[in-house]
Amino acid sequence: MTRRGVNTRHITKRSRNATRLGATLDRPDTSGCALRSLTLTTVKAKQETHLGLVRRARRMNRTLAVAFPHVYCELDFRNPLELTVATILSAQSTDKRVNLTTPALFDRYRTAADYAGANRAELEELIRPTGFFRNKANSLIGLGRELVERFDGEVPHTLEELVTLPGIGRKTANVVLGNAFGVPGITVDTHFGRLVRRWGWTTEEDPVKVEKAVGELIERKEWTLLSHRVIFHGRRVCHARTPACGVCVLASDCPSYGIGPTDPPTAAKLVRGPETEHLLALAGL
Question: Which of 26, 189, 212, 269 is catalytic?
């Protein structure tokens, strides 16, 4: 079955995935004995060439584009400074928690100069719900001062300049570049790193090395959208502990298919988020 350009035959006909995983199904013998147990054993996949990996990675990105046609940064912001602040606050927190915190913060602090001259106790109290509020307050005050002193109060447009600012590493810089300035960047957060390793795109653990490895597979113009798609997929389908393999649109290209439930009705219960109905429809449910 094909829906909107996505092959969903893997949902009901899993032989292709079973072969990849080394699954063995003992069928009934000629005496009519009952079907014996299904055993899934993950084995090392056949050696994949670099060209084959590039093609598979880009195919998976195209499939994700169908699964998540309207991806976006899930942090609320109105300008580059607000996005920078929100991204700093998102460390060791959730986007939902940050979005509950930032309305009052952004109402009180509107410019880099406001952060530079912030009352520390007041700022800490406002951002306390996001966790690590003392360290984050240090970063925000330092950020404000650096922006005022070095960049006329404006958030810079380059990776090289952004990573020199307090509280900003490559991940935050790429979020800001991609979503505030339209500069392609790969955002390697927990979800992104977990999924690209699970998909066999890289074995690297270091975020900078992951970013480089993925950047060599996917066209630069796709980097920001790819980041959103992978993060969306990680939050909604490919969970850390129990991925919803049985309804995953990437199953036919995923070497880790089977680490989560493969029964579609069971897997369907694991899907989260506002796109659930759309994702299940792509899976034929």
Answer: 189
CB 185, CB 162: distance < 8 Å: no
pTM of the model: 0.79
Residues facing 24 on adjacent strands: 39
3-state secondary structure of 87: helix
Q: Which of 46, 171, 206, 269 is catalytic?
A: 171
* Annotated binding-site residue? 238: yes
Distance of CA 79 to the CA centre of its chain: 22
Tell me the per-residue pLDDT of 40-58, one tens digit each, with 9 for 90 and over.
Answer: 333 344 689 999 999 999 9
pLDDT in tens, 159-196: 999 999 999 999 999 999 999 999 999 999 999 999 99
| 245 assigned to a ligand binding site | yes
User: Across-strand partners of 39?
Assistant: 24
Active site residue 171: yes
At 38, phi and psi to the nearest 5?
-90, 125
Query: Known binder of ligand: residue 33?
Result: no
Residue ranges of domains in the chain, CATH in brackets: 50-69+187-283 (1.10.1670.10), 80-181 (1.10.340.30)
